[in-house]
Amino acid sequence: AFPLSSTIIKCYDSDHHVGRKKSFNYSVIRTRRVVEQAFGRLKGRWQVTAHCKLNNPVFARQVATVACALHNICERHNCPFEEDWLPEDAAYGYEIPGSPHGIVDDDARHVRDTLADWVHAIYPRH
What we know:
The chain is an all-alpha fold and 126 residues long. The chain is 50% helix and 0% strand.
C-alpha cells in the first residue's frame, strides 16, 4: 500500500463514514475494480510478456505501450477473450485500504477532500 500523495489518491481510512467520505470511498473502490479488471484482461491477453526480461525501463515502457495499443484494438473489435486467460492473482477485493503510517502530503489531502466534495455532489451516498 502506498501513502496518500498528490499522484496517488486513496480512500479515507475506516469504513464507518457517512456523506461525502462514504461517497468518495465507494467511487474509489468501484474505479479501482474497473482498472484492476482491465489490467487483468491485459495481462491475460499478453501472457507472453510475463516471460520477458524487462530490465530496461525504456524497453519495458515500449512493451507496455504496444501491449496496451494491441489490447485496445482487440477490445474495440470484440476479439475473443477466454476467461481462463486471466492470471491467478486476478482476485479483485472490495476492502477499503488504509494508509500506512507516515508522512501524508497536505496538498494530497486537499485534492482528496476536493474530489470527495465533487463526487458527493454528483453521487451522494448516505
